[in-house]
Amino acid sequence: xxxxxxxxxxxxxxxxxxxxxxxxxxxxxxxxxxxxxxxxxxxxxxxxxxxxxxxxxxxxxxxxxxxxxxxxxxxxxxxxxxxxxxxxxxxxxxxxxxxxxxxxxxxxxxxxxxxxxxxxxxxxxxxxxxxxxxxxxxxxxxxxxxxxxxxxxxxxxxxxxxxxxxxxxxxxxxxxxxxxxxxxxxxxxxxxxxxxxxxxxxxxxxxxxxxxxxxxxxxxxxxxxxxxxxxxxxxxxxxxxxxxxxxxxxxxxxxxxxxxxxxxxxxxxxxxxxxxxxxxxxxxxxxxxxxxxxxxxxxxxxxxxxxxxxxxxxxxxxxxxxxxxxxxxxxxxxxxxxxxxxxxxxxxxxxxxxxxxxxxxxxxxxxxxxxxxxxxxxxxxxxxxxxxxxxxxxxxxxxxxxxxxxxxxxxxxxxxxxxxxxxxxxxxxxxxxxxxxxxxxxxxxxx
Length: 447
Ligand SMILES: [Zn+2]
Ligand SMILES: [Zn+2]
Prior knowledge:
seven-stranded mixed sheet; binds zinc ion
């Protein structure tokens, strides 16, 4: 007999930032919301590239990949999950799709699908990130998706990657809201507003919310970041080196606008160029075209290029858009170069001129896509006489704004995830009408 109950279980995102894997079971319908990689768990055991997991067995053995039957493609049992919904394309929410049985459909935003497929092409042969053969079902905001006894409505939210969504999930025992990762100080705060209003209208029984920024919160916005970047770029005599997450399209836009305003070009990496090229399919996104006169593609010095790199180089070489380090070196005061710390070997042939700067435009010490090795970074900067600026705004909502949104949505229960400070969060919101549940990993919660 089918039980008429609805439960939630959290297999990741508990006492950690990211790694979200939330199982919602309604009667006999089972749906996962996000299936991300846990950076925190992985870091406890591995140190890539020298010590990396060799197979899914190692990941399961160490508890990095949770023990759940009927979910993984390496497990012979029939599928026991009806669908996976991905909130956005950051790896801490999506990477472990790699292990999902290919007969389980994966729902995500159209933009997220483009991003995941582009990343999968770039990271070919990465055990922990491949979406090949996945049956994607793409949605846009406001669509209603029925999965057996569930009706799921995705609503766009603003985050540091395009195509991010929150969900309003109608179950047999009330409505559950899931925020995914969101903020209201980015380039499109109106999207988050839309989500909050729709969540409120649904009079939810429960909300699963991110609570990332409970310590070290700042008051800033993407617009303010752009102003600060202008200050730096306008004053620099030499090259401006910029480090930012390559899927952070808002930040890329900010750098592009400022480069253009200061008669410079923004030189992006092959990876960024590949993603921008793929995202052009999405007409709703505002992104610079690679053939724009203020854009260049930087080809770093290496001997062997992957197929996707060769194709990109071939296509844009014809338009004189591909620059190597020697060409960039000759016109340093005309370029803002997106350069990751891991490509700092390029500084040797580049020889940054006096008055050059390095701008770290990503979070510290945690970032959803990279981890910065501070000591070594500083040694390189010291060697070349490059001052370091830190100009950034978080992809995550700030505490007071989060509380305000939660008050407005007014769910009966709150389940905080994606945070190392759930207890702090619970105390901070204790005067709201909602009851906070501090979740334990893999425990089932009855709604
Ligand atoms: Zn996240
Ligand atoms: Zn995220």
